[in-house]
Design brief:
heterotrimer; A alpha+beta (about 350); B mainly alpha (about 280); C mainly alpha (about 270); A: about 350 residues; alpha+beta; Rossmann fold; OB fold (Dihydrolipoamide Acetyltransferase, E2P); five-stranded antiparallel β-sheet; 20 strands; B: about 280 residues; MetI-like fold; globular
């Protein structure tokens, strides 16, 4: 079995009294698209910077291909970073920016020029080669920044929220480009973002970070459907979260007492009296008729949110609990809202995910 | 009513503009304007007479010793600017990028103090230090190194220039360097630059404008300085500034001095113009 | 940033060296002002205050110091006043020819002081005030206005532009607004400008030499002594001059630092 490309073991980083990263263990495998996600201040950017050698861990080891590289200065690590601000050199034109890494390696002028033009061509921005970079649009600059990082053909590329400054339609196109590039080149991408949609659209594995620690690692689907903690459940996707206590276990099912009433979920080896959190994804909670499903709730409609082909309904039960329900837009008309905006929603036991609190 | 208010507003505006315009108009522009006019006047019997002749210009510009002084001044000032800019850079780099914000402010605070403190007395103190039996040679002999005769040499003039301009150049360079976007420097490291290479490949190009402006100020100060070449450099051969003082001291030859002065202003304007093109030129 | 610590140590030492170079002449003058030997050579002899006593009992020097102080005071007041008007104009108004206005305000330091001296000598002679204290005050003010303007303008840029508008909206005339809002806000920078321009004027030698005639200021006296024989009094004079101007510059810097800490609020 080959060494992972990059490994972080027990890495911690403090700034004064504040712990930015705590005892982190992470592995980056060759050729994978790894997304690191989390709210602002969770330590994801610090982790990325430590991988690039721009920060030194206070504790722990960083290993590249099995070798400890903590002491290796950034210019000797072959691990290019695409900055959020892109950090293109304003005093160089596009081509010169792209050539920069090769220049540092002593590659001759003609060769690096042709390689730079080749990469610019690959990314569809060859025509801007001789232009100063601040005359170009966000999307064009983004591609030049990518070319600049990839030209040295590194085994691993770090990206720090590269799409956060782009317009929405550009983001979609850039995502497609990134996925395509990553597959074609077969190099590992470590992609930091606070946007779920980006992470889930592109990644093979998703790392959720909170408070400087890794909270969950898994495939996008796992993280989405099977959040391991309440934090992940709140951060990822649209989930309805109910705290409660196990009341009874009946064969394969379990009854949980919550603030909105008893809920029926699948049993999972827990004794009555255990505190649990029941997570129901918004697309598992669907409009239905009263009694049609083992768990139904009466609620009224507060607002709707259209996100392309899906609509999220924000509902409220009579005692003020907020619910989120996601339905395809086309089905909106299929069920009737009674004149007073009252609705019944429900979910099946197998669609609920139970966490120990 | 409305025109009343408008009039009052106009008075308010003009009132605040007036002091500068009146004062600098009368005394700054007046003095320099008169200087220019005066360069065309005649001196008869030790008195100046209004005239419009080119005699002063011809006399001065025809003299080889004027041109000697001209090139000498230009050469010394340019050399001084170059040497000081280079010597200042490591200090500016350290202050701008390496020191903590507190240390940075302290360093700049300390550097500003001597800059506004009697240059004349500081230059005199350097005379003491550089004299044949002065402090420098005392230290050198203590270390076993033979004595150097530094006074009355161009090197001593450069020391004087440095005393005058080093604080300013270090501070201006440091401010310019510290305002560089750090991420650009990190990008340079990330793409394979060692710390040293990053200086030439990233930091200098990014701080270019500030470095040029610092050099221009240094040049202006050195070019016009009288004290360093006179008291430390031995005053012979003379610089243009020494010429002005000598010519003005010896009997009312103010028009001739004015010619030298205006030539100097011309050179300074040309240098500033070139520098501004260097700073802003690329954009066009 | 990663990098060996040794590097950083050398760099900091270099900064120390630069500071030492810059302060060396000041230290030398101070030390030798207490040295009993007539000649400024090492090794040092005994400690003495005789040079200071000499200076203190010399009427020519005392009147020179007095003159310098008077000129500095007048220059500080004038250039700060005009500097405020200029800074305020730049801050509040935009008008055709503003570029020219600002250039006029900031140009003087780009003219070498020897040239200014000559020009002032000729022009002020024409205006028949050359050789008087007024001449020195006038010439120094021309030189000092840019410094005052820059300091005050910096402070004004920290003021919320809406404050004056709010005052007008509440019925204050523009004059009242300046008096009650802008001036108090800029108070520390006004003091800093006065301290700095006083220091600049106090140390100015070239223009003073040209226009002062018989009304010599301290730097002019120093110039005369320098062209003569070795005179140990000069260290004592230098030390006094240094202490005076350094105090003024330090005061100015502290005032500027303090005032921007309270940025945005009237004091």
């Amino acid at each position: 079995m080959s060494d992972p490309l990059l490994e972080l073991r027990g890495v911690s980083k403090r700034y004064g009294a504040h712990s930015a990263v705590r005892n982190l263990d992470l592995v980056v495998n060759p050729g994978e698209f790894l997304a690191i996600m989390g709210p602002s201040g969770c330590g994801k950017t610090t982790t990325l910077r430590m991988m690039a050698g721009l920060e030194q861990p206070d504790e722990g080891d960083i290993l590249a291909a099995g070798q400890r590289v903590n002491e290796v200065p950034p210019h000797q690590r072959d691990i290019p970073l695409v900055w959020q601000s892109l950090a293109l050199f304003p005093f160089l034109n596009a081509r010169e920016n792209v050539e920069f890494g090769l220049r540092m390696r002593g590659i001759g002028r003609t060769e690096r020029r042709s390689r730079a033009l080749d990469w610019l061509d690959r990314l569809g921005v060859r025509e801007f080669a001789e232009r100063p970079v601040d005359t170009l649009s966000g999307g064009q600059r983004q591609r030049i920044a990518l070319a600049r990082s990839l030209i040295t053909e590194p085994p691993i590329l770090l990206l720090d929220e590269p799409l956060s400054a782009l317009d929405a339609n550009l983001v979609i196109r850039m995502q497609a480009l990134l996925i395509r590039l990553q597959r074609q080149l077969g190099i590992a991408f470590v992609y930091v973002t606070h946007s779920q949609s980006e992470a889930f659209a592109m990644a093979d594995r998703v790392v959720i970070m909170g408070g400087g620690e890794i909270v969950q690692i898994g495939s996008p689907k796992e993280v989405y459907r099977l959040p391991s903690t309440r934090f992940v459940a709140e951060f990822v996707g649209r989930n309805n979260i109910f705290d409660g206590k196990v009341v009874a276990v009946n064969g394969g099912e379990m009854s949980v007492a919550t603030a909105i009433g008893p809920l029926v979920v699948l049993a999972c080896d827990l004794d009555p009296g255990t505190s649990v959190t029941v997570v129901v994804a918004a697309d598992s909670l669907q409009p239905c008729l009263p009694g049609e499903r083992p768990n139904t709730l009466a609620c009224s409609l507060i607002s709707e949110e259209f996100v392309g082909s899906m609509v999220t309904l924000f509902l409220e039960t009579s005692d003020g609990t907020e619910l989120k329900v996601q339905v395809p837009e086309r089905q909106l008309g299929a069920f009737e809202l009674k004149g007073d905006g009252l609705l019944t929603v429900g979910f099946l036991p197998q669609d609920a995910h139970v966490l120990r609190t | 009513m409305a025109s009343d208010a408008r009039r009052r507003a106009a008075i308010f505006a003009v009132a605040w503009r007036a002091p500068l315009l009146i004062w600098q108009g009368s005394f700054f522009i007046g003095a320099l304007g008169f200087l220019t006019v005066m360069s065309f006047w005649l001196v008869k019997n030790y008195r100046m007479e209004p005239a419009f002749v080119f005699q002063n210009w011809e006399r001065i510009l025809a003299r080889p010793f004027f041109w000697d002084a001209f090139w000498r001044t230009l050469g010394l000032a340019s050399l001084g600017t170059l040497v000081i800019s280079v010597l200042a850079f490591p200090a500016a780099y350290t202050i701008g990028l390496v020191l903590s914000p507190r240390a940075q402010r302290l360093a700049i605070f300390l550097l500003v103090i001597p800059f506004f403190t009697s240059y004349l007395v500081r230059a005199y103190a350097w005379q003491i230090i550089l004299a044949d039996r002065g402090i420098l040679n005392f230290l050198l002999s203590w270390l076993g190194i033979p004595a150097v005769s530094m006074l009355n040499t161009p090197a001593a003039t450069l020391v004087g220039y440095a005393t005058l301009t080093l604080p300013l150049v270090v501070v201006l360079q440091a401010l310019s360097i510290s305002s560089i976007d750090r991420r650009l420097i990190e990008a340079a490291y990330n793409l394979g630059c060692t710390r040293l290479r990053a200086i030439s490949m990233a930091i200098v190009p990014l701080a270019r404008s500030g470095l040029i402006i610092a050099a221009v100020f240094a040049f202006i100060l050195c070019y016009g300085d009288f004290v360093a070449p006179y008291y430390l450099g031995g005053s012979l051969p003379p610089t243009l500034s020494i010429l002005i003082v000598d010519t003005a001291k010896s009997g009312q030859q103010w028009p001739r001095s004015a010619v030298v002065a205006i030539t100097m202003i011309g050179v300074l304007m040309a240098v500033s113009f070139v520098a501004m093109r260097l700073v802003y030129g690329r954009r066009r | 940033m990663t990098g060996p610590r040794l590097d950083t140590l050398w760099l900091k030492a270099y900064v120390g060296l630069a500071l030492a170079f810059v302060f060396a002449p000041i230290a030398v003058a101070l030390v030798f002002s207490f040295n009993s030997s007539r000649f400024p050579t090492l090794p040092l002899q005994s400690f003495t205050l005789e040079w200071y006593e000499d200076v203190a009992s010399n009427p020519e020097l005392i009147s020179a110091f007095g003159r310098s102080a008077l000129v500095a005071l007048l220059v500080a007041a004038l250039s700060t006043a005009i500097g405020f008007a200029t800074a305020y104009t730049d801050y509040r108004f935009s008008f055709r020819g503003k570029g020219f206005f600002v250039a006029l305000a900031l140009l003087p330091p780009t003219i070498p002081s020897v040239i200014m001296g000559l020009a002032m000598l000729a022009w002020l002679s024409r205006l028949a005030i050359s050789g008087t204290i007024a001449a020195i005050v006038v010439a120094h003010t021309v030189i000092c206005i840019p410094f005052a303007t820059a300091i005050i303008r910096l402070r004004l840029s920290e003021m919320d532009a809406g404050l004056e508008l709010a005052a007008w909206n509440l019925g204050a005339s523009p004059w009242t607004a300046v008096r009650t809002l802008v001036l108090p806000f800029a108070r520390r920078s006004l003091l800093a400008a006065m301290a700095l321009t006083a220091a600049v004027s106090f140390d100015e030698y070239a223009v003073a030499w040209f226009v002062s005639g018989l009304q010599k200021t301290v730097p002019v006296v120093v110039l005369e002594i320098l062209t003569g024989n070795v005179d140990p009094r000069i260290n004592a004079i230098g030390a006094i001059v240094f202490v005076t101007s350094m105090s003024l510059v330090i005061a100015a810097q502290i005032l500027i630092g303090r005032s921007s800490q309270k940025s945005g609020t009237a004091e």
